[in-house]
Design brief:
Blueprint (H helix, E strand, L loop, with lengths): L1 E9 L2 E9 L5 E10 L9 H5 L4 H27 L5 E8 L8 H5 L2 H22 L4 E4 L4 H9 L3 H15 L5 H16 L4
Parallel strand pairs: 1-4, 4-5
Antiparallel strand pairs: 1-2, 2-3
Helix pairs in contact: 2-4, 5-7
């Protein structure tokens, strides 16, 4: 089966859902899991931790966190992309791209600190996919249902029914993160050329 991996990220971890459309035309979830995206020895919220440090130490800490995220993301994406019995066509990451300015600029705004911390994890996944030559889709959470519904030529009701059916078939956990990751994966699959 052709599938994609959708990610819904948080500070230090993400929900990953490998999904596609089965031969019967219904949403098929091949794998779902919570993945770790940073080492246990580092703060999950880099800029919040860096705010307590002098400028040089803050730069070093942020760089260490980003390096750990990159390492973990490569391992996660590599493992999921090489799963047996499924052809992973790419990854989709929930969340539009954001700029990450220099550390001093980020530390000047608490709201920017939160935004950039989230972007560090999303960016790590994107870079890992790029390293593996996998197509990547970044999509905002507000776009998911409409875009997936349009690409699959489903109605909004059917999209909801497909997500509910997966919950019944797989059981818990099947929360908003899982649904968003699954829809992102389907959107990536259907937006590929020739699909």
């Amino acid at each position: 089966m052709q599938a994609a991996v959708g990610f819904s990220t948080h500070s230090g971890w993400a929900v990953a859902v490998t999904a596609g459309v089965g031969d019967d035309g219904h949403l098929a979830v091949v794998d779902r899991r919570r993945v770790t995206l940073i080492g246990d020895d580092l703060p999950r919220m880099a800029y919040h931790a860096a705010a307590e440090l002098d400028a040089d130490a803050a730069e070093r800490l942020v760089a260490s966190v980003e390096a750990s995220i990159a390492d973990h993301a490569r391992a996660v994406v590599g493992e999921l992309a090489s799963a047996p019995d499924v052809a992973v066509e790419g990854i989709a990451v929930v969340g539009q791209p954001r700029e990450i300015p220099g550390v001093a600029v980020v530390l000047a705004s608490h709201a920017r600190m939160h935004a950039c911390e989230g972007e560090q994890y999303r960016r790590g996944l994107v870079e890992a996919a790029n390293d593996l030559g996998l197509p990547v889709l970044r999509i905002g959470p507000d776009e998911l249902t409409g875009r997936t519904t349009e690409l699959l030529e489903w109605t909004p009701e059917r999209t909801g029914q497909e997500l509910a059916a997966v919950r019944v078939a797989l059981g818990a956990p099947w929360q908003a993160d899982h649904k968003q990751a699954a829809l992102a994966a389907l959107t990536l699959l259907r937006s590929q050329p020739g699909r």
